[in-house]
């Protein structure tokens, strides 16, 4: 279980930009080679244009050269939304840990969070 990632995500959440919902979300991804990337949700007055913490953390890893299969784990301070579950699935993140509504940390896989997720692009299909 990635308790340390969830606890870091909780700290990172304080830096989120959520003036409309006041729902602060943080995420931290850890790559297979041990690098870590943080992300927060960033809202926009045009609501659909906001981005989730999971996406910004994954995007930070992508900017650093990571591709699907390079991220071993993610910690989030809240359960991921449906769209982010597809991102977790597509990037083949091995372990997803988040703080549940009851305060407990849950650890699972993208497949358990999103049964029948959309297929991977041909160039990033799992081996």
Task: Walk me through this protein's architecture.
- The chain has a five-stranded mixed sheet with strand order 2-1-3-4-5.
- With 127 residues, the chain is α+β, with helices and mostly antiparallel strands.
- The protein is built from four helices and five strands.
- It is 27% helix and 20% strand.
- The chain has a single domain, classed as Cytidine Deaminase, domain 2.
- Strand 1 and strand 2 form a beta hairpin.
- 36% of the residues are buried.
Short description:
By secondary structure, the protein is of the alpha+beta class. It has four helices and five strands, in the order H-E-E-H-E-H-E-E-H.
| Helix share bin | 25-40%
Total count of domains: 1
**Main β-sheet, spatial strand arrangement:** 2-1-3-4-5
Report Rg: 14 Å
The poorly predicted ranges are none
- Secondary-structure element order, as H and E? HEEHEHEEH
Supply the CATH architecture: 3-Layer(aba) Sandwich
Question: Mind describing the biggest β-sheet?
Answer: 5 strands, mixed
CATH superfamily: Cytidine Deaminase, domain 2
Structural class call reads alpha+beta
What is the tally of beta strands?
5
């Amino acid at each position: 279980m990635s308790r340390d990632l969830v606890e870091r995500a909780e700290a990172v959440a304080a830096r989120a930009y959520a003036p409309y919902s006041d729902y602060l979300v943080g995420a931290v991804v850890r790559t297979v080679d041990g690098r870590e990337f943080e992300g927060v949700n960033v809202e926009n007055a045009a609501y659909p244009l906001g981005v989730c913490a999971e996406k910004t953390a994954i995007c930070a890893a992508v900017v650093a050269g990571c591709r699907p299969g390079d991220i071993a784990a993610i910690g989030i301070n809240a359960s991921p939304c449906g769209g982010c579950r597809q991102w977790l699935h597509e990037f083949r993140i091995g372990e997803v840990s988040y703080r549940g509504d009851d305060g407990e940390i849950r650890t699972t896989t993208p497949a358990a969070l999103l049964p029948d997720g959309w297929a991977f692009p041909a160039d990033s299909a799992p081996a």
